[in-house]
Amino acid sequence: MMLLPCPWCGPRNSTEFRYVGEAGPRPDPATVTPEQWRRYLYVHANPCGPVRETWYHRAGCRRYLSVERDTATNDVRSAVDTASAAAASSAPGDAR
Amino acid sequence: MSDTPIARGPVAVSPATVRDGWEVDARVATGTLTLSDESPLAKVHVRAPFDGASRAALGVGFGRTARADLGTGEVLVVGSGPGEWLVLGAPNTAGALRAAIEERLAGTGEFTTVLDLTHGRGLLRLTGREAATVLGGVCAIDFGDAVTPDGTALRSSLAAVVTDIVRDDQGGTPSYLLHVERSSGQYLADALLDPGRPSGLEVTGFRGLA
Ligand SMILES: [Zn+2]
Predict the structure, then answer these.
(1) Assign residue A90 a region: left if phi > 0, alpha if psi is -120 to 50, beta otherwise?
(2) Does A60 lie at the interface with B, CB-CB under 8 angstroms?
């Protein structure tokens, strides 16, 4: 069993979540080329080690979370609400 | 005409009787561990900013419950999610309750939605000293008093069904309201009766909020 520490609900079984994917900056739809958009959607780094990814707590708070997880050990360094974090830094959201 | 049902809960009843226009189970349990279908209760869903004036107007935040009177008699206000509330009231008060909540939130100036979910959802109540043991058989949450005391609201997977779990003790006896999509109601009742059998879990008729 893999536990994810939801900032709203506390530690929960990962089966309560939907894995959305690696988080990264979303290209501007107005200027992006089809190739860049394809890479954004489908090409991922998939590292063996720390990665920032998005999870959706579908069976809990129904919020998107930004999670820093080590894919080799499953250690979770941080988990924050994606929308709240984006609002706090007033940077463009990177939920996909 | 008073014994002609105009609505049914999601759980099959036998024998049936009619209360407030709803077909409900006529059984009365004699044991101390009971499961009842509380679907006739009015269920109104509210969405508003997580931590604004609406939260103050509703009187409770995420993860907790409060009894209140919003103008339609006593209701149970449940902080069911971040920026999400579920308000439970007496049968056949959903329309008035929705209007009362809308009026209460109108003054906040916040963007809110108030929706009557009564006929789209199922609501069960599991009551008894061993209730936490029964829930523990189908859910990974710690139902001990230290973690989930009376007045706790949370959402989790219960027998693989996404369920709002609301602890609402009755006269000092642990009691849990379980709120699910209507189509999951019968399945969830069966999924609780099965592990509850060794503890003597019995079906009983509609009880209401009191
Ligand atoms: Zn959560």
Answers:
(1) left
(2) yes
